[in-house]
Amino acid sequence: VQLVESGGGLVQPGGSLRLSCAASGFTFSSYAMMWYRQAPGKERALVAVISSGGITTYADSVKGRFSISRDNFKHTVYLQMDSLKPEDTAVYYCGAAGSWGQGTQVTVSS
């Protein structure tokens, strides 16, 4: 299993970013895909999940601002993040099939 995140960076409060996670080594369409984040000094926390059938679930802290989606042809899961806040600053990880990616840093700061 290989998961490779991209799309992180520095953004001002109120801005947007779209994270991508390219997956390989497993039957992508059969697995739920997840985004987690870990802020400095805090435990890794679930941000969003998309089931194999496309059902989505979000942490309360990101509801209405973040959107998870998947492209089963490209074996890629996305996290669209809008109205970003400083408290969204964290390393964002993609997870599936018991594995994690290396993470991508998102920093929200003016």
Task: Please give the structural blueprint.
Blueprint (H helix, E strand, L loop, with lengths): L1 E5 L2 E3 L5 E8 L8 E6 L6 E6 L5 E3 L7 E6 L4 E6 L8 E7 L2 E2 L3 E5 L2
Kindly list the characteristics that best describe this protein.
110 residues, globular, four-stranded antiparallel β-sheet, 52% strand, mainly beta
Word description of this protein:
The chain is mostly beta strands and 110 residues long. Helices cover 0% and strands 52% of the residues. The protein is built from no helices and eleven strands. It has strands at 2-6, 9-11, 17-24, 33-38, 45-50, 56-58, 66-71, 76-81, 90-96, 99-100, 104-108. Strands 2, 4, 5, 6, 9, 10 and 11 form a seven-stranded mixed β-sheet that branches. Strands 1-3-8-7 form a four-stranded antiparallel β-sheet, with no helix packed on it. Strand 9 and strand 10 (99-100) form a beta hairpin. The radius of gyration is 13 Å and the shape is globular. The protein starts with a strand and ends with a strand. The model has no long low-confidence stretch (mean pLDDT 97).
